[in-house]
Design goal:
By secondary structure, the chain is an alpha/beta fold. The protein folds into 2 domains: 1-41 and 125-174 and 270-342, FAD/NAD(P)-binding domain; 45-107 and 177-267 and 351-381, D-Amino Acid Oxidase, Chain A, domain 2, CATH 3.30.9.30. It has 12 helices and 19 strands. It has helices at residues 18-29, 54-62, 92-98, 108-119, 163-168, 235-242, 248-255, 286-289, 298-314, 319-349, 352-363, 367-379; strands at 10-14, 33-37, 49-52, 71-73, 76-80, 86-90, 104-107, 123-124, 129-134, 139-143, 148-151, 153-156, 175-186, 197-203, 206-214, 217-224, 263-269, 277-278, 281-283. The protein has a 7-stranded mixed β-sheet, with helices on both faces. It has a 6-stranded mixed β-sheet with strand order 8-2-1-12-19-18. It has a 3-stranded antiparallel β-sheet with strand order 3-7-4. Strand 15 (206-214) and strand 16 form a beta hairpin. Helix 1 (18-29) runs parallel beside helix 4. It is globular, with a radius of gyration of 21 Å.
């Protein structure tokens, strides 16, 4: 193992999600030995999906990840307002390409399978990390099966409910926002859903959306503000009860979806955590800065974390300097995403005069201003 000032030669990554697998690929490119330890021994049986904006897609393409295997490019974000009326089309495709890469609608399970295949034998499934012990010249990750792994550093990519964050910060909990809903991926395309178009509905107390993922698949979601779904009431029934007027396209998605395909989601985040590291253990992705699933930025932030950290590790700097530089660079951006996600959920689900003013503003926004808003979205600014 290395001294505190020596070059990092081996990295143990805890968590085989987007952050962990992207980090492993980037480190492999730099010739650094890695091992990825994923708690579960199988992929999730239910598929979900999300958006990956241009800046994160560019990182994946630079790693030769075949993004077409798990998603489809997004051309237009079509926003509907408080009464379901069309408000504005946001030119996602044009602005994304000006920034160097398409933005993509993505099937999470397909993404994970693609990344896992590329990481190869450095990924170990079914190995749950329960603790990390720091030593002067290395760190040791201990697993539930009694095994352990030594590495120069351990990177915790174990998600919003991170066990290693709990070890570092026993009193820290996610800040739950009181909102929840469902997301599903179905193996069909509902009538009226154009390829490359995400249909989003910003309704009083609720936001909903639907888009094609390529490969004959569609993802859709419904999220309620200040309402938690009930376990003892049918999922579709709850949506029908809470929405006075269910958009026709969402109705078609509901009709094509089995309730077993509907995955419960809830909004929670983690803003003020600092530092993200302790000795030779570092948190990244949702483990360090979890954001609401309705922000559309969690996977993008994780990918950006992974790329920057890999470059810092490959630079040969001492461990303490790597971790300090990483947090100094990434924390302001991550905190900005979390703050914006809180405002965004409120803005997209408000009612009354606020929703009328919001719809009026978007319907009359000048093209240069709209392009700037979209540019900020696709670049992560």
């Amino acid at each position: 193992m290395t001294s505190s000032s020596a070059r990092v030669q081996k990295v143990a990554i805890i968590g085989g999600g987007v952050a962990g697998l992207t980090l492993a690929l980037a480190l492999q490119r730099h010739g650094i030995r890695v091992s990825v330890h994923e708690k579960y021994d199988h992929y999730q049986s239910q598929s979900t999906g999300f958006l990956i904006w241009s800046y994160a897609i560019k990182i994946l393409k630079d790693l030769d990840v075949p993004v077409q295997n798990f998603g489809a490019p997004l051309e237009v974000f079509r926003l509907h307002g408080r009464k379901g009326q069309h408000v504005v089309d946001m030119p996602i495709g044009d602005v994304s390409r000006r920034n160097g890469a398409e933005s993509y609608e993505v099937n999470r399970r397909r993404l994970s399978q693609t990344l896992a295949a590329m990481v190869g034998n450095d990924l170990v499934l079914g190995q749950e990390c329960v603790s990390v012990v720091n030593h002067p010249d290395h760190a040791t990750a201990h697993f539930a099966d009694g095994s352990c792994v030594d590495a120069d550093v351990v990177i915790a990519c174990d998600g919003a409910n991170s066990a290693l964050r709990q070890q570092m910060f026993p009193d820290v909990r996610l800040r739950m926002l009181g909102s929840g809903g469902w997301i599903a991926v179905i193996d069909t395309i509902p009538e009226g859903l154009e390829p490359g178009v995400q249909m989003d509905f910003w309704l009083p107390g609720c936001k909903a959306g639907v888009a094609q993922l390529g490969h004959g698949e569609t993802r859709w979601y419904v999220a309620f503000n200040n309402i938690q779904p009930q376990a003892d009431v049918a999922k579709k029934e709850q949506i029908q009860q809470q929405l006075k007027r269910v958009p026709e396209l969402i109705q078609r998605c509901l009709a094509l979806t089995d309730e077993e395909q509907m995955v419960f989601t809830q909004a929670g985040d983690l803003l003020a955590l600092s530092p993200w590291y302790r000795d030779r253990l570092l948190l990244i992705g949702d483990a360090a800065h979890a954001t609401s699933p309705y922000a559309g930025m969690g996977a993008c932030s994780a990918i950006a974390d992974a790329a920057m950290l890999a470059d810092l590790i490959a630079s040969g700097r001492p461990v303490a300097e790597i971790f300090q530089c990483f947090e100094a660079a990434r924390k302001p951006a991550a905190d900005a995403v979390i703050k914006e996600s809180r405002h965004g959920l409120d803005r997209s689900t408000c009612g009354g005069l606020r929703s009328w003013m919001r719809d009026l503003m978007f319907a009359n926004i000048p093209s240069p201003k709209l392009d700037q808003i979209v540019d900020d979205m696709v670049t992560g600014r």
